[in-house]
Amino acid sequence: xxxxxxxxxxxxxQRGICGEIIKRFETRGYKLVAAKFVQSSEEHMKSHYADLxxxxxxxxxxxxxxxxxxFAMVWEGQSIVKLARxxxxxxxxxxxxxxxxxxxxxxxxxxxxxxxSDTLENAKREIGLWFKPEEMVTYTSCAQAFLYE
Length: 149
Ligand code: GTP
Ligand code: MG
Fold this sequence. Notes:
Elements: E1 3-8, H1 10-14, H2 18-28, E2 31-38, H3 42-48, H4 58-65, E3 70-76, H5 80-88, H6 101-105, E4 114-116, H7 120-130, H8 144-147
Helix pairs in contact: 3-4
The structure holds guanosine-5'-triphosphate (GTP) and magnesium ion (MG).
Guanosine-5'-triphosphate (GTP) binds at residues 52, 57, 61, 91, 109-110, 112, 115-116, 118.
InterPro entries: NDK-like_dom, NDK-like_dom_sf, Nucleoside_diP_kinase
GO cellular component, one term: ruffle
Function: Major role in the synthesis of nucleoside triphosphates other than ATP.
């Protein structure tokens, strides 16, 4: 089954939104397979956001993302990379529809509370960057038979 990397950013952690985000993914029917509460280094964030290295906000973004704890997770489910991005909303909360996480819970592009992998390839890369294989849990959820035909 497809997996994606989701992280509550330092602003989401400080604002006490971790539980709300876990709740949205759980109630959608996704399965949590890894989670940890970490303060990342600036170097780690530079690798995480390497595809943005030429953008003017890259330095500030990496510094900010390493300024406080992040709640890092791997979620699993059908088409989760694409559907999680839809749940997040647009990069800019001002363009995000009500009902989406960013559309409901934040206002500023530089403080948009949550990260989600944008492609399956990046999901695999990011999961490898944040989690060791032994930190991932394999199990069958009892809800599985009721979520999928
Ligand atoms: P992530 O899930 O965090 O990867 O966001 P995204 O995929 O929606 O956007 P992208 O990867 O393009 O940018 C990464 C992060 O950089 C965004 O979530 C924003 O916090 C920040 N960012 C993107 N564009 C801008 C911008 O124009 N100005 C500022 N200040 N920050 C930006
Ligand atoms: Mg991105």
